[in-house]
Design a protein that fits this description.
Shape: elongated
Structural class: alpha/beta
Helix content: 25-40%
Strand order of the largest sheet: 3-7-8-10-9
Length: 751
């Protein structure tokens, strides 16, 4: 073990006394207060459970260590390189004693089973300290923290490939070929033998790479979370290194709290010079990683390892970290799901400070719960995420809804349309400052994988950034071919976008495509398009004003809703995560028949009394209906999708269609507005107007006429159905593009 002066002897005495004593002062006999019905000390049972599961690390809560011995806690913070290895040694001694006391495990680890081929113990435990009293910010680390144990919170932005980390070095004399005993790493250093013990040659040792022992190592770059960045500052970044079982346990986009040793490394001015820079490079050697999520315990890592060891990692679980829930948590979730008004409670609990907009909140709830992820036999995956677009007048709390969803989603990114580029949304190639190699950096859509990507000011995005969303919103992937890097990244994210109309206020006389001026190919990828209009109404305006004033004056008029009906933010986040992971509803036969009937009914609505065919529903709307029905079943933690879920999903789709796909000229639902940007009635009107134009021009002398005379003749012929100047020129331009009309200045002639 690594030696040192000062605290280690006291720590060794303390730890060995902790093992032998059974009094209330022992750390083993402390009640952590986590479980009220805990019988006896926690750490002996925790050690045995860890050995039974075949895991190699055990978490040590530093708050309990501080409550037992403040001096030992301060020594751990100041001298972690000496204290933590001693913790490992004594922890294994304690584990060996506990195994001998347990009858079942004594037989398993007795005799030849107690050691491996090298003579080491069959189990080897590592102590991972976490939960320090002080969590520092990245910009708060200073030179006094070097070689100290620190805890830092941030968001993972980049994870490197796996690097080999030398643990045991094997040397060989280049003169006589003698191989001395292997040298172990001591506090980050390898002591190379200066002299050969056989031939007494100086500095003749060479390193045998194939006989050395290496462990896994990975560089993880972290960035400050937006809520901790001071006003007017850019987020700070910090390089960290994770080892062994922490490798590949976290991914970009995770919010984590890391506990490790803060180190400073001198950097050479040039690779061939010994001169060092005055500014050192700093990084953190990570001991413990904890996801910054109230639903996620410190054992998220062990669950991944145990599933890999058992070979039970399915395709759906490869990217999903399964959280283990206690019986009390599951009981609390089931109580919420069994309440008769669970749907109404969830609507009230989503952004309770925003007045009404109940249908919009229902659609966003379906987006948060999402559908069931399914795969076909051919290997293709069906999209389960729901995309929602909020369109409406300014000041209708669209951005407030999005910010609340961003806080509620366990994994999400918030971005603005004007501040987003195409590579910032998908991925971009950058040059690593250390290795100078080209590496791939993830964008917002990839970072929010399995979460929600909130895009504000959707209408102000550039065309290039908008085009990057097409593949991610339907195929759920991002494909790249840049600088020799060809890959496909997962982007299984739900997109929640908000947009303002082109003329600042929504014009009811125009369609959604004309108001938003967004490409129809992108609009068709949204499952729900909600219009939030600011219509003046005396009664609703008075209620809204009272609600807003009550938010600024909590002591005044109180909300009539009781707090019991509103689920807290943390509980709602936990409930959503539990439903996503544990609930996989299947469509019942009755629900499947209801889905088919609804789709056929919507298609039948397209045949009007005049016999004209209007597309009112497409297969994309049917898939949206399936996803919404599954999400509604997840809200109740139901194992099957019932007919009631399909009816509510159909109502939501109808509400969205009546708002967004209604042709203002005829008042009927027309999906051509969303699919192509041109409604069926407008297409028929243009065709009829072209026939009238051809009839007027064919009767003119020389089949030539000016546009002003043509418009005057059409007004006399059609009277009330006469087109406007803009409508006339749209049809004339369309005829000219197709080669059926020649336009020379103001003169028109049939081709």
């Amino acid at each position: 073990p690594p030696g040192g002066a000062g605290p280690p002897p006291a720590v060794r005495t303390y730890m060995s006394g902790q093992q032998q004593q059974g009094d209330t002062n022992s750390l083993d006999s402390m009640d952590l207060g986590v479980e009220a019905d805990l019988e006896g000390p926690k750490y002996p049972s925790l050690i045995l459970d860890t050995i039974r599961r075949g895991e190699s690390s055990i978490d040590l809560d530093c708050l309990d260590l501080h409550s037992y011995d403040e001096e030992l806690y301060s020594q751990l913070i100041s001298y972690p390189q000496e204290i933590v290895p001693l913790f490992d040694i004594v922890m294994n001694e304690v584990a060996a004693g506990l195994v001998q006391q347990d009858e079942g495990m004594r037989q398993q680890y007795s005799g030849a089973n107690a050691t491996d081929e090298a003579g080491n113990l069959a189990f080897r435990l590592q102590v991972r300290t976490f939960n320090l009293r002080e969590v520092k910010t990245m910009r708060g680390l200073d030179p006094t923290d070097v070689d100290h144990l620190v805890s830092v919170k941030g968001m993972v932005t980049h994870v490197s490939s796996i690097l080999p980390d030398l643990k045991q070095a094997c040397f060989k004399c280049s003169v006589c070929g003698h191989t001395p005993e292997p040298v172990y790493i001591d506090r980050g250093n390898i002591q190379e033998p200066q002299k050969c013990q056989v031939c007494n040659s100086l500095n003749s040792m060479i390193l045998l790479h194939n006989r050395c022992l290496f462990s896994n190592k990975q560089q993880v770059k972290m960035q400050e979370t937006p809520d901790t960045v001071p006003e007017g500052e850019t987020p700070s970044t910090m390089a960290t290194y994770v080892f062994d079982d922490h490798v590949d346990a976290i991914k970009p986009g995770d919010r984590v709290t890391v506990t490790g040793i803060f180190r400073a490394l001198p950097v050479r001015i040039a690779s061939r010079q010994r001169n060092l820079r005055s500014v050192f490079k700093t990084y953190i050697d990570v001991i413990h990683v904890e996801k910054d999520d109230p639903n996620d315990t410190a054992s998220f890592l062990q669950s991944k390892i145990s599933r890999e060891a058992a070979g039970t990692v399915s395709e759906a679980d490869e990217d999903d970290t399964v959280v283990k829930y206690t019986e009390q948590e599951e009981q609390a979730f089931k109580e919420i799901a069994q309440s008769p008004d669970i749907y109404a409670r969830l609507v009230k609990s989503l952004a309770p400070s925003i007045w009404e907009l109940d249908d919009v909140k229902r659609g966003i709830l379906c987006q948060l719960f999402s559908g069931t992820r399914k795969g076909l036999q051919t290997g293709e995956r069906l999209r389960s995420e729901v995309n929602v677009l909020l369109c409406g007048d300014p000041g209708t709390s669209k951005s407030q809804l999005m910010s609340y969803v961003h806080k509620l989603s366990p994994r999400g990114i918030y971005t603005s349309g004007r501040g987003s580029s195409s590579v910032g949304l998908t991925a971009y190639v950058a040059r690593d400052p250390e290795t100078r190699e080209l590496v791939l950096e993830s964008g917002a859509l990839v970072l929010s994988d399995l979460g929600v990507c909130c895009i504000d000011e959707f209408d102000k995005m550039s065309d290039d950034a908008r085009n990057a969303l097409h593949e991610a919103m339907e195929q759920q992937t991002v494909s790249l071919a840049k600088a020799g890097i060809i890959c496909t990244l997962n982007a299984r994210t739900s997109v929640l976008a908000s947009a303002n109309p082109a003329g600042s206020r929504y014009n009811p006389g125009q369609s959604v495509v004309e108001n938003l001026r967004l490409p129809s190919t992108l609009l068709s990828r949204f499952d729900l398009i909600f219009l939030i209009l600011d219509k003046p109404d005396l009664a609703s305006d008075r209620q809204l004003a009272r609600h807003l004033v009550s938010l600024h004056n909590p002591a005044g008029e109180q909300d009539t809703r009781t707090n019991d009906d509103i689920i807290s933010l943390d509980m709602l986040r936990s409930y959503i995560l539990y439903a996503q992971q544990m609930c996989k509803p299947k469509i019942s036969d009755d629900a499947a028949e209801a889905l088919v009937n609804y789709y056929v009914e919507m298609r039948r609505m397209g045949t009007s009394a005049a016999g004209s065919k209007v597309i009112t529903s497409t297969p994309r709307q049917l898939e949206s209906l399936v996803r919404l029905s599954e999400a509604l079943a997840k809200m109740k933690l139901s194992k099957t999708v019932e007919v009631a879920d399909v009816d509510e999903a159909a109502r939501l789709v109808k509400v969205a269609l009546q708002q967004s796909a209604t042709d203002p000229r005829t008042g009927t639902i027309d999906m051509d507005l969303i699919q192509t940007g041109v409604s069926s009635s407008l297409r028929q009107m243009r065709y009829k107007l072209e026939q009238d134009i051809r009839g007027v021009l064919s009767k003119a002398s020389g089949r030539t006429m000016s546009s002003s005379v043509l418009l005057q003749d059409l007004k006399e012929t059609l009277q009330s159905q006469a087109p406007s100047v803009n409508e006339l020129w749209e049809v004339l331009q369309q005829m000219s593009d197709s080669g059926r009309l020649n336009i020379r200045g103001d003169q028109l002639a049939l081709a």
